[in-house]
């Protein structure tokens, strides 16, 4: 009932999804059919069932949900291990992004049991039975669990995520006090996995113009940087009914961040700075 | 020409959480209160136009259906009020730890239920 940390898995069995029709507002080519069901491997004792979203861009069919049965005694402890096990042992066409396998690269973020998380840091023992594995929510799907994040990175580019300084460069580093450096804690750690933006209902409905929690957290990371000299211009970019103010403090972002960061608080800091600028 | 990419599901697949459910509730209760304001204006207009119209309006409001609607509107009012206070706290960049978000959320649910029941107990007494 009370959640202390974002890595806590929801304990309530119900409700697993909103009471809306499966295909509410879903375009015909995005509707999900029932796919193939693979049998459990012979001799397997501990079995986990995964219902995995599949889409083959080269075929003619739309998306489908395949059912895989994983031998837990034959694979590693995390969901990413299970996906790699499936690719090696059952279906080599299963496609997903992965790199670091320790939660610092943000490649394997996906919608697991209805919430966004990185597959490499979600233990198989924390999954529902059967568990669902979808590509990151609300994005165009390139293949299987690989979504197209071009729009999200274009939004990130818009806030110009680099240091702006007009003053002449000093001979050595631009110095910060320990306190000034501490102002970036909790924000610089973002790995751009976009779990938060993909889980934000405001971004679902207005993602074309609302920047979303990941990009706004990054915007605050530069607004909070004592070395940055473009605060006014940065705030001007964000001062917009959609770019910043479509955030209605729903806080799905803070609930789902695999790094335990707080995009909700970062956005509130921006809104407060916007008010203080008006004096 | 490649065929269009499907879009991965959002609301159809994403898990309801206290965060999103209470936010949707805030929006829905706000809409309900706006509609309720029309009802209030209609009730006042009926009262201004004479005893016959006022009697009809009273009969509608005091029917089982009317009472059910009034109950839901008071629930919407107290929920919107309590959750509005939560938003005021957030506007001061306070209460953003997950534990605070969940404690505050459940407190709003409890407080709006208790206030609604207390209001009706007081009104019917």
Structure, described:
The complex is a heterodimer of chains A (279) and B (125). With 279 residues, chain A is an alpha/beta fold. Helix content of chain A is 27%, strand content 14%. Chain A has nine helices and eight strands. The longest helix of chain A is centred in the last third of the chain and has 16 residues, at 263-278. Helix content of chain B is 78%, strand content 0%. Chain B has 125 residues and is an all-alpha fold. Chain B has a single domain (23-124), classed as Fumarate reductase/succinate dehydrogenase, transmembrane subunit (3 helical TM bundles of succinate and fumarate reductases, Up-down Bundle), CATH 1.20.1300. Chain B contains four helices and no strands. At the A-B interface, helix 8 and helix 9 of A face helix 1, helix 3 and helix 4 of B.
Notable traits:
heterodimer; A: 279 residues; alpha/beta; Ubiquitin-like (UB roll); Fumarate Reductase Iron-sulfur Protein, Chain B, domain 2; 6-stranded mixed β-sheet; two-stranded antiparallel sheet; 8 strands; B: 125 residues; 3 helical TM bundles of succinate and fumarate reductases; 78% helix
**Count of DSSP strands of chain B:** 0
- Quickly give the CATH architecture of the largest domain in chain A: Roll
**Domain unit count of chain A:** 2
At the fourth CATH level, what is the homologous superfamily of chain B?
A: Fumarate reductase/succinate dehydrogenase, transmembrane subunit
Structural class based on helices, strands and sheet pairing of chain A: alpha/beta
Oligomer: heterodimer
Q: Please tell me the overall pLDDT of chain B.
A: 96
Q: From the 3D coordinates, which CATH architecture of chain B would you assign? A: Up-down Bundle
Order of helices and strands of chain A: EEEHEEEEEHHHHHHHH
- In CATH, what is the class of the largest domain in chain A? Alpha Beta
**Radius of gyration of chain A (Å):** 21 Å
Relative strand content of chain A: 5-15%
CATH fold field value of chain B:
3 helical TM bundles of succinate and fumarate reductases
């Amino acid at each position: 009932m009370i959640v202390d940390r974002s890595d806590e898995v929801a304990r309530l069995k119900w409700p697993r999804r909103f009471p809306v029709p499966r295909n509410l507002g879903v375009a015909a080519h995005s509707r999900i059919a029932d796919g193939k069901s693979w049998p459990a491997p012979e001799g397997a004792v501990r079995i986990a069932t995964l219902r995995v979203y599949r889409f083959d861009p080269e075929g003619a069919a739309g998306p489908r949900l395949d059912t895989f049965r994983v031998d837990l005694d034959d694979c590693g402890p995390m969901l990413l291990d299970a996906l790699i096990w499936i690719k090696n042992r059952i279906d080599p066409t299963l496609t997903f992004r992965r790199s670091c396998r320790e939660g610092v690269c943000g490649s394997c973020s996906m919608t697991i049991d209805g919430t966004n998380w990185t597959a490499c840091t979600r233990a198989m023992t924390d999954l529902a039975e059967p568990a669902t594995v979808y590509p990151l929510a609300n994005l165009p799907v390139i293949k299987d669990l690989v979504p197209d994040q071009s729009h999200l990175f274009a939004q990130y580019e818009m806030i110009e995520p680099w240091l702006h300084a007009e003053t002449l460069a000093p001979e050595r580093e631009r110095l910060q006090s320990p306190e000034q450096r501490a102002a970036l804690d909790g924000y610089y750690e973002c790995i751009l996995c976009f779990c938060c933006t993909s889980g934000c209902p405001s971004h679902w409905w207005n993602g074309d113009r609302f920047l979303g929690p990941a990009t706004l957290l990054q915007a605050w990371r530069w607004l909070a940087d004592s070395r940055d000299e473009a605060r006014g211009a940065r705030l001007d970019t964000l001062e917009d009914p959609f770019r910043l103010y479509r955030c209605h403090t729903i806080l799905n972002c803070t609930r789902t961040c695999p790094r335990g960061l707080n995009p909700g608080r970062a956005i509130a800091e921006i809104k407060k700075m916007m008010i203080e600028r008006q004096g | 020409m490649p065929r269009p990419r499907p879009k991965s599901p959002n609301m159809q697949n994403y898990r309801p959480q206290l965060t999103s459910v209470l936010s949707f509730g805030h929006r829905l209760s706000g809409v309900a209160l706006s509609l309720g304001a029309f009802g209030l204006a209609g009730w006042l207009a009926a009262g201004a136009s004479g005893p016959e119209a006022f009697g009809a309006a009273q009969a509608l409001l005091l029917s089982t259906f009317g009472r059910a609607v009034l109950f839901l509107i008071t629930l919407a009012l107290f929920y919107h009020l309590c959750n509005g206070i939560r938003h005021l706290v957030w506007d001061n960049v306070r209460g953003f730890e997950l534990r605070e978000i969940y404690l505050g959320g459940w407190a709003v649910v409890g407080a709006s239920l208790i206030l609604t029941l207390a209001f009706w107990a007081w009104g019917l007494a």
